[in-house]
């Protein structure tokens, strides 16, 4: 118990309760099956992709190392959110400790930023491959990928670590029910008795600094790629050039579209059911991990052949 100067008494809380679709209990029933299937698909497809790239010597190239990094991030994001959501749906395990909540918040923010930055590095990889093909082997080396991975990790952790720290230092004195299925920053911060202006400002600034800069650089890379492709005169050269970055462009398009839909939904949330942004947030942590390896597996001939060779070895 904590006494305040005005004589009121508040209770310090030790954990949170995730209020996951309690207003729409039928959603839990209908979502649990597709969500669990998408989760299994995401884990299976990404594991297959990682094993294929690991075992196939022909795939030990910078572009596939970046794809391995993307798959690892997808799996981490999926594992951070979906098992807890399914535990709520199936067993009503809504309680989550302070530590687990803020750890989930940190992983969601930092790994999402890492994924965005990985897309940006992949766009640069495609730019060099198409616009400077002769210099590609000397520019995009294994050493470059190692440095890029360190940059992705350091930038994302450095800029997103203050988000859970700022939320963790707030005073939580009574309400402990999070109106969400996961520990989103503002969903948690709104429960505190403290002023959360700094939390709002930092999340907005960090979010748009990270994602905004990545999207601008990705757009610039593809503008330069498109300009270079349109200048190609050789027969079939345009189709070949576009096919080398088609998979990446599809994933970027989905990534940007989902992000914009989510932001737009938050802006007009007063006109929608409060469960809609929550649903979009959950789906954003399972649909991309399930979709990304399939897009690359279907559209990248080298990966498709590598998976086929591995399956033949198993049989």
Write up what this structure looks like.
The chain has 315 residues and is mainly alpha-helical. It has one domain (16-314): Rhopdopsin 7-helix transmembrane proteins (Up-down Bundle). Helix content is 74%, strand content 4%. It contains 12 helices and 5 strands. It has helices at residues 25-55, 62-91, 98-131, 136-139, 142-160, 162-168, 185-189, 197-231, 237-267, 275-284, 287-299, 301-314; strands at 2-3, 9-10, 15-18, 95-97, 177-178. The strands form 2 sheets. Strands 4-3-5 form a 3-stranded mixed sheet. A two-stranded antiparallel sheet has the order 1-2. A hairpin with a 5-residue loop joins strand 1 (2-3) and strand 2 (9-10). The longest helix is centred in the last third of the chain and has 35 residues, at 197-231. The chain is globular, with a radius of gyration of 22 Å. The model is unreliable at 1-10 (pLDDT under 50).
